[in-house]
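Course assignment 3, question 2. Fill in each field.
Student: A.L.
Task: Predict the tertiary structure for the chain below.
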Amino acid sequence: MSLSDGLTGNRERLRHTFKFMSTKSKIFIGILILGITFCTYFSIKNTVEIIKNYPLVRKIEISLNVESQKTIDTKMAEEKPAPPNDWVEIPSTLFRSKEEVTILFEQAGLKPLFVPQHIEREADINKENLSVGTTISIDSQPNAKYFDGDNYGYYAPKGSEIIVGYSPVEYQYQERD
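Answer field:
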């Protein structure tokens, strides 16, 4: 027996019960249910208003509002750590050639270590075609750290070797249904 069968059975029993009641009885029951609903609504509403007006409740509410605002202000005012002076920002490597990445890394004082990776998924997400040697953006690495703040991005100590994934195969992006 499903839930809908049970509800249908209850509905049938109610119809059967109401069929034998007079119109005055039906109106009386309707008014009674409506009255109970209003009383419940207004008693809950009045209870909430009464509780809000108690001095202790108001003090707690005000205290919570002040504390939460202080917490928000403090978190916003906290300075985010900046990268150390001897660290350099790692240039973006997403969908660049290995030659471009080598030049960018040399200018930044870093050394790329190219590792073959299948990056077709990233190409599909960005709707890009890949030629052999197309690189992907770097991920977190032992010698690189992401800094947030004014100069956000990945940073590494000058002279570090950074692992850069590249596509070992050519890939043509195809629109899928």
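Instructor remarks: Helices lie at 3-19, 23-53, 55-77, 98-108, 120-126. The domain at 87-166 is CATH 3.30.10 (Trypsin Inhibitor V; Chain A).
Grade: pending
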